[in-house]
């Protein structure tokens, strides 16, 4: 499944490249001197995400060439070469890029949770951030262990599943837990604003929940599939392993794209690029929502 995974990875990287260019254009178009810090941060973020993804796919393609072309007569075939030589420096670039990108996305998610829960009087901020911070620290620690094992002990995630499975379980738990916390907080805001000011004032929060849920679901689904197949020693885990890095980048860029996009009723072509739930919400502009019912 290694070759099929490499081909699928290239296709997903094409999506990543397209999303990066779209996000880059959107951020540059909205760049202004009054709010330059936020846009500069987004510009740096999407660039780092794309660079890490590019390094990872370059490393994976070099490893594919080594296994299926240069060493195709290796005992056991190219797949055996991929597993046995997983710790080659050529392949270490992909592992390090993926782990760093995963840390970056997890830290960004935890930071986003902190921003959203700041000023929330019902639950103290430290109580909310206790679990996300603990999971983030655990993810960083186990990730460092995986990189250390691969670089020093010449191991692979398929050989040392006792380290790989906890890492994926931790980062998956972090993504699901923090996304649920953010969704609960935003739904609370949605209900409050809807009850006091009307549905049109709470609709923005429903949009954000849809964006976060769809982005998290994409990454969480692949992580869960890889976690299960790896624990069962199924060959399909090799396929998913190849796709993990571009999927992670696509999920992050997709969230930024949705947040930066400005859709209108006469701009339907942009909504077709969004997932169904977000597209359905974003089809309605704020002016139509704010129009009184008796005037329609």
Protein model, in words:
This protein has 296 residues and is mainly alpha-helical. Helix content is 80%, strand content 0%. The protein has helices at residues 2-29, 36-70, 78-84, 89-117, 125-152, 161-197, 199-231, 236-260, 268-271, 276-282, 286-290. The longest helix has 37 residues, at 161-197.
Overall geometry: globular
Q: Radius of gyration, Cα only, in angstroms?
A: 21 Å
Distance between the termini: 57 Å
Helix content: over 70%
Overall pLDDT confidence: 79
Overall number of structural domains:
1
Number of beta strands: 0
What is the CATH topology descriptor? Answer: Rhopdopsin 7-helix transmembrane proteins
Q: Which helices and strands, and how do they pair?
A:
Blueprint: H1 2-29, H2 36-70, H3 78-84, H4 89-117, H5 125-152, H6 161-197, H7 199-231, H8 236-260, H9 268-271, H10 276-282, H11 286-290
Helix pairs in contact: 1-2, 1-8, 2-3, 2-4, 2-8, 4-5, 4-6, 4-8, 5-6, 6-7, 7-8, 7-10
Structure at a glance:
With about 300 residues, this protein is an all-alpha fold.
Looking at this protein, list some descriptive labels.
0% strand; Rhopdopsin 7-helix transmembrane proteins; mainly alpha; globular; disordered C terminus; 296 residues; single chain
């Amino acid at each position: 499944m290694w070759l099929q995974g490499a081909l699928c990875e290239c296709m997903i990287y094409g999506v990543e490249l397209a999303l990066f260019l779209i996000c880059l254009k959107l951020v540059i178009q909205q760049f202004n001197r009054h709010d330059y810090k936020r846009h500069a941060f987004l510009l740096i973020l999407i660039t780092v995400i794309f660079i890490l993804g590019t390094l990872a796919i370059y490393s994976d393609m070099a490893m594919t060439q080594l296994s299926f072309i240069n060493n195709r007569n290796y005992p056991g075939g190219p797949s055996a070469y991929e597993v046995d030589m997983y710790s080659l420096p050529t392949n270490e670039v992909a592992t390090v890029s993926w782990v760093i990108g995963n840390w970056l996305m997890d830290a960004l998610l935890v930071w986003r949770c902190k921003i959203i829960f700041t000023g929330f009087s019902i639950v103290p901020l430290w109580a909310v951030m206790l679990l996300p911070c603990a999971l983030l620290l655990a993810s960083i620690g186990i990730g460092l262990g995986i990189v250390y094992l691969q670089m020093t002990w010449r191991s692979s995630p398929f050989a040392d599943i006792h380290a790989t499975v906890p890492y994926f379980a931790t980062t998956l738990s972090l993504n699901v837990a923090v996304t649920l916390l953010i969704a609960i907080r935003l739904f609370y805001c949605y209900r409050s604003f809807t009850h006091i000011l009307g549905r049109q004032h709470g609709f923005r929060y429903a949009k954000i929940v849809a964006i976060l849920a769809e982005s998290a679901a994409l990454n969480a689904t692949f992580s869960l599939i890889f976690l299960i197949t790896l624990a069962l020693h199924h060959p399909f885990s090799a396929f998913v392993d190849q796709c993990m890095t571009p999927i992670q980048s696509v999920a992050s860029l997709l969230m930024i794209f949705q947040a930066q996009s400005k859709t209108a009723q006469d701009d339907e072509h942009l909504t077709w690029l969004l997932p169904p739930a977000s597209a359905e919400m974003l089809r309605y502009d704020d002016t139509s929502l704010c129009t009184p019912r008796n005037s329609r």
